[in-house]
Amino acid sequence: MTIRTKICGITRPEDALAAADAGADAIGLVFYAKSKRAVNIAQAQAVAAALPPFVSVVALFVNETADTIRDILRQVPIDVIQFHGDEDDAFCRQFDRPYLKAVRVRGAEDIQTASARFPHARAILFDAYHPEEYGGTGLQFDWHLLREYRGKPWVLAGGLTPENVAAAVNTSGAAAVDVSGGVESSGGIKDHAKIRAFVAAASAGRAAE
């Protein structure tokens, strides 16, 4: 089974191209001013313009206003929206795009209730819980908790690296993974060798099962 991969927090066209060349299925653009990986409209447009066909562009928002989201969607070719804040299903579904909803996992209940809480989500993204941050923390949660999940399609995130992604895939049963800091040389700057190693290791993990 092919493991789908997303390289998030892209800020430069050359990093987007490196992700595409490595075989990533999607790249993520962070529209959250407090993030060290945040992009403005011009940066996002440049990244999107550099991508080859069939690589999805995902826009990440955290508790953003609907008007701001619509303004960005008018200016940047976004395929999928990823909500990482406290948004509910009604808010997330209003933008005429498939959406992913990040759920910060503290325990099994957070996983088991996710599908019911976000019935219109294309997929759930399970990330590690942090009391003050909305992702990109490098923290992990117990991947074994996902083995019994039978809800919506889902994506594994949180503390993934080229060194641990194969184990994460095998332990959790993930069909898709999302990485940001684990393939960086510094905040918002991707390491192209790490991107290649991550994509290869993700696929090798499932193949080794």
UniProtKB/TrEMBL annotation:
<dbReference type="InterPro" id="IPR001240">
    <property type="entry name" value="PRAI_dom"/>
</dbReference>
<keyword id="KW-0028">Amino-acid biosynthesis</keyword>
<dbReference type="GO" id="GO:0000162">
    <property type="term" value="P:L-tryptophan biosynthetic process"/>
</dbReference>
<dbReference type="InterPro" id="IPR044643">
    <property type="entry name" value="TrpF_fam"/>
</dbReference>
<keyword id="KW-0413">Isomerase</keyword>
<keyword id="KW-0822">Tryptophan biosynthesis</keyword>
<dbReference type="InterPro" id="IPR013785">
    <property type="entry name" value="Aldolase_TIM"/>
</dbReference>
<comment type="pathway">
    <text>Amino-acid biosynthesis; L-tryptophan biosynthesis; L-tryptophan from chorismate: step 3/5.</text>
</comment>
<protein>
    <recommendedName>
        <fullName>N-(5'-phosphoribosyl)anthranilate isomerase</fullName>
        <ecNumber>5.3.1.24</ecNumber>
    </recommendedName>
</protein>
<dbReference type="Pfam" id="PF00697">
    <property type="entry name" value="PRAI"/>
</dbReference>
<keyword id="KW-0057">Aromatic amino acid biosynthesis</keyword>
<feature type="domain" description="N-(5'phosphoribosyl) anthranilate isomerase (PRAI)">
    <location>
        <begin position="6"/>
        <end position="200"/>
    </location>
</feature>
<dbReference type="GO" id="GO:0004640">
    <property type="term" value="F:phosphoribosylanthranilate isomerase activity"/>
</dbReference>
<dbReference type="InterPro" id="IPR011060">
    <property type="entry name" value="RibuloseP-bd_barrel"/>
</dbReference>
<comment type="similarity">
    <text>Belongs to the TrpF family.</text>
</comment>
